[in-house]
Design a protein that fits this description.
Layout: E1 4-9, H1 12-22, H2 32-37, H3 48-62, E2 67-75, E3 84-95, E4 98-108, E5 113-124
Antiparallel strand pairs: 1-3, 2-5, 3-4, 4-5
Family: Belongs to the enoyl-CoA hydratase/isomerase family.
Protein name: MaoC-like domain-containing protein
InterPro entries: HotDog_dom_sf, MaoC-like_dom
């Protein structure tokens, strides 16, 4: 079985749409002038967005009718608008229709680094 993977560049319009959907309007996620005063180079991606990306990756892999039953993750570093992240996963166990997956999120490109680790998901496949 091959590993799971999802790659996405997160741009400021994506972050604003996510903020609107979640009602999280903290200036950290959109206000470049406010961020510059604090020494940050660009808006910071809302950490919960990584949960949404991990869920998307796992459910796309698991297929129609699958149910995400658990998801946990821990932030390791900030990710800024315009950076590309790669979510990865690998199956580490099965128990009947329940599949356990070890996951991670890394920033790819010039400033490569781990963004989220460790992460884990459980999915029930039909």
């Amino acid at each position: 079985m091959t590993g799971l993977s999802l790659e996405r560049t997160i741009e400021l319009p994506d972050m604003v749409a996510y903020a609107g959907a979640t009602w999280d309007w903290h200036r950290l996620h959109y206000d470049s002038a406010w961020l510059a005063e604090r020494g940050l180079p660009a808006p910071v991606v809302d950490g919960q967005l990584f949960g949404a990306l991990l869920a998307e990756m796992v459910l796309d892999w698991a297929g129609p009718g699958a149910e995400l039953t658990a998801l946990s993750f821990r932030f390791k570093s900030l990710v800024h608008a315009g950076e590309t992240v790669r979510c990865t996963g690998r199956v580490v166990g099965t128990d009947g229709d329940l599949v356990s997956i070890e996951c991670g999120v890394e920033v790819v490109g010039e400033r490569a680094r781990v963004a989220v680790a460790p992460a884990a998901a459980e999915v029930r496949r039909p």
